[in-house]
Amino acid sequence: MDMLTTLAQADLPAAMAPATLAHYLFLSAAMFAIGLIGFLTRRNLIVMFLCTELMFQAAGIALIAFSRFHMEQTGQTFVIFVLTVAAAEAALALALVVLLFRRRDSLDAEQWSEMKG
Amino acid sequence: MLNLAESITSLLTTATDAAGGLQQAAGHGAAEAAAHGATHATDVVMGPWYVLLIPLLPMLGVVLVTLTALLGIRTKLPAWLTVACLGGAFATTVVMYWNVSAGPAVTYGFRWIDLATGNGHRFTADFGLYVDSLTCLWMLFVTGLGTLIALYASEYMADDLKAGYARFFMAFNLFVFSMACLVMADNLVLMFLGWEGVGLCSYLLIGYYFKKPSAVAASKKAFVVNRIGDLGLLMGIFLTYVEFGTVQYAELFPMVEPYVELVKSGMAWDVPMRVGLIPVLFMVGAFGKSAQLPLFVWLPDAMEGPTPVSALIHAATMVTAGVYLIARTYAFFVVSPIALPIVAWVGAATALVSATIGMAQFDIKRIMAYSTVSQLGYMFCGLAFLSTAGAAFHVLTHAFFKAMLFLACGAVMHGFAGQLDLRKLSGVAFMKGWGIVGIAMFVGCLNLAGFPFTAGYFSKDMILAEAFVTQGPGYSVLGWVLLVTAGLTAYYTFRVFFRVFVGPRHAEPGDDHHDHAHDAGEHGDAEPDHHHGFHPHAPGWAINLVLALLTVGSIAAAGLYFVDKENHGWVGGMIHNSSAYTSAGSAAFLDSANIGMHVDDPVGTGHSADHDDAHGGAHGTLFGQDPHKIMYYVSAVFGVVGILTAAYLHGPKGPLGLFIGGRTKAATSRADGLADAMMPLPTYARNKWYFDEFYGALIVKPLRALSHVFHLIDKLLIDGLVNLIGSLPRFVASLIRPSQSGLLQGYAAGMAAGLAVVVVTVWMVIAVTGGGS
Amino acid sequence: MTEIVSPYLLFIGLLIAGIGVAVAIPRRRVNPQAIGAVIAGGGLGLVLLSLALTNPDAIPNLHFYVFGVIALGSSLRVITHPRPVYAALFFILTILSSCGLYVILAAEFLAFALVIIYAGAILITYLFVIMLATQAPSEDRIEVLAEYDVAGREPVFAVTASFVLLGALTALLFTGSATLESDAAPGDEAARSMAVMELMPGKAERLLREQGAIGKKDMVVKVHAAEGVAEVQTSEALTTVPLPEGVEPTNVELVGFDLLAEHPGTIEIAGIILLMAMVGATVLARRQSELEDEAKRRASEAIAARGGLTADAVIADTDGEAG
């Protein structure tokens, strides 16, 4: 099975066919869609933030796939920045979540609707 | 002459291009002057620099008085500053009078307006002063009377030391400045600045007692009515610029000369209509400012202002601005076939109507106001009868005696707490301390009545005589109207005198309760028959001094008639050297001009006002005599009859009533019975022939109704539309507001749906266009 | 045939998958999550099948399908598990499977970085916050699931929007892939990565010295990647030596050069973002503790007002409790 050999990168990676790239992109889009569904349906603030991380991850897969497709490192570099932003966001958002939980003793996102029109 | 005719023809053919027409019409020298934009025409010399002081000193007064107000000075300092500044201006005027040569001179101040109007034309107006004898004449009495009345006002306005003293004198100075601009301007635009300036000061001073609703209403009325006239003047100035391309007198007058020549040679109808329209528009302005018939209603109401203001602005100076305007631009008037006859008829009608109103009034200040309107009518008639000298002489004499009459009335008003009703005052002249006021009033009344050998008598005669001399549409009828009016004038003038100043001593105070912080010695011992608490206070030294000076001046003014007899008096000599005369041409021209009305008299038999000895045989006559001579007697008869009638109806018993009077009480007289017999005419006259009501019904009410209609339209239609538009967003918002649930996930769902729509759209577009290739 | 069949197959698969996901979202009463998962899995399988059918020549290798199915399944479980702790753990599984995908895509460095940062740091933070922000189970309520975890909100709308988006994207991707051309020509990739070697003469010198191709005092002056030789300054002269085997740059080296040589400004920005996050978190935490002090003061005043103790004593008391 020459398919298995492609897992180990003993040699320089070969270029990827566009149709193969599309499969990775579909995977990324599907993961993004699932993350979006989660963000929209779950009412727990922490799980909502987990879903945003899921969407970050989907974007990361797309970036890495493009990096491979173009044989460039910029996509990978960009994932590093995505990681940075995700870490910063996790620090701030979780601090806020804790703050909000202390205010209302609940993680329900629907508790916070002061911006109602 | 042939050249001129050609140019006139070409002017008519190329009338569409005003500037071009101007160049051709002006032809000879003025075109060159206009072409290279010279400020002064070549025949006008440079004036002396110091005449600039005449407007600048009152302006300095404005600044200084404003400073005193800012510094919170509560003394009579503003009055003394004003007297000093105006006195300086008067002294400068006298110097100017002694030094002014026969020809006009222009003193250049600075370039005021300089606009490029396109097509290579320029519009320029300087702050420059045009000095000729007409200017001198006007400025002499404006600054002279201004100084005296400022002195008078220093005492008269003393009650207002705490409130508006500085404001009064600021406006007073500003008025004299504006009047100087008006009279001394060397162009029409600066003249208009002065014209509006005096209107503004008039407004400010009529409304001086701004807490009094009637004063505020009167000031508004004066302002609004004057706007009508000002519009006419403004349009006249526009038309002048369009037609001649300049507003400088020194350039204008030579340009009008060809038209005057044209009229002289009997081709009056060849003058372009637009040139003929200019004097008509000027005339509207003059009617507004000088309170002539359609627009006279503001002047009587203007008596709400302080009396010094009435004396200076609304009797002596500002209201004569219309006369000045016509005199200054007389050349325009003689080229128009209709302007001067209109002036004549309006003037005479105004004189008669306001005299009849004056007969029925009880408020002595209002009587004086109506007599002012009436006398202004005389002046306009004088202008129209080609007697600019007579008009100017009457302006001068009237300025003196009417100012004096007003100041005397003001003294009464000041002393009797605002009392002006002639039924409630009697024998004032014989109260202690009121002698000078009585004498001044008597001299003033004699002048106004045209009693023989007074100044008013001579000046009025000059006008009346010309009514019969000058040929014009119905001028002799107007002469008789004016004669009758002279009789009425004598009657109502002496009605005031006999009722208020002689007879049994009686005084009821008015309802002005000012703070009488006077020394006991200043109080006159009037007869407080019925009002024991009331002590009228006699006028102080300032009022008495001013009245005495004016009395002397009024008497002396008669002497002016005999100076320079060749030119029909001193004033005639002054006029002779000014644009009011020189532009109009010689006596020969005036003989032939006759304003085109005399188609049956082609050779021209009208006569100059200024050459009563020089005219030939063909002459208007009165009782078969030369009107200039017989008028001395005729007008004297009318005047004396008027005085005797007043004495009979209103005079007190005894010598002061000329032994024919029979009045014993203040409130009633023989006239009451006569008035009852003549009902309802006196009521009509007392109500000013319902002019105000007529204007109210004709103009104000329809406008008000219209404004209500527009108010409704505004409220229902415009506001409705605006509110509809305003409520539209609110309505739309109410539809989509529920989407703003305030829930984080709600917004996220919206974003997701929007993103889906966008991506689906992109997909569709790509699918339709075939894969984007 | 594929032009006609596969879009419909794709959409049918997405529809089934969507229904499955909608069923799998937690509900209050009837909660057939397992059935939903099976339906969703079937739908997604159908989709993958249809995608494979569109271009059978270019299907990815088997590992893609293995890791992809694990990643999608665990991420589906992240959004459907009612307990946040399990959701976080399933998220770690998602991360790990996507790390596998990264390795397939020749991004080893990022695969390990992802495990360390996401699974190691961020998710542990999440777990701590979940512990902090969950009500402790009480005696009368053994079920610790919060009400808001039990039921999702508007699953049908969310699933519809998301799957319409997914369908459109997928259709676009597979339409566009036909015209997409790689800018990397065949055989070019080696040259591209070798070009980086010119920046690393030190590495070439070390390798050459280890292999004994050059002496201890010789220095590599310059690397000519295109010719595959290195200029070496020996004690005698300047010579050229062929580059050794295995000199090709590794993934870490490539990413490192790209990061530092191409995006230095972005690194600064990232540093600032992290600093701001740190400061922000500190500020938020501080506000929190001040709020607690204020609440304590109010409570003590209320107690003091009710009588008995003085306010100071109460504060001391509550402080002691807090300590």
Q: How would you portray this structure in words?
A:
- The complex is a heterotrimer of chains A (117), B (773) and C (323).
- Chain A has 117 residues and is mainly α.
- Chain A has one domain (18-106): Helix Hairpins.
- Chain A contains 4 helices and no strands.
- Chain A is elongated and about 55 Å long.
- Chain A starts with a helix and ends in a 13-residue tail after the last helix.
- Chain B folds into 4 domains: 44-207, no CATH class; 362-686, no CATH class; 687-740; 744-773.
- Chain B is built from 30 helices and 5 strands.
- Chain B starts with a helix and ends with a helix.
- Chain C has 3 domains: 2-176, NADH-ubiquinone/plastoquinone oxidoreductase chain 6, subunit NuoJ (Four Helix Bundle (Hemerythrin (Met), subunit A)), CATH 1.20.120.1200; 200-248, no CATH class; 263-322.
- In chain C, strand 2 and strand 3 (238-242) form a beta hairpin.
- Chain C has 12 helices and 3 strands.
- Chain C is mainly alpha-helical.
- In chain C, strands 1-2-3 form a 3-stranded antiparallel sheet.
- Chain B binds chain C through residues 745, 749, 752-753, 755-756, 759-760, 762-763, 766-767, 771-773, and chain C through 153-154, 157-158, 161-162, 164-165, 168-169, 171-172, 175-176, 178-179.
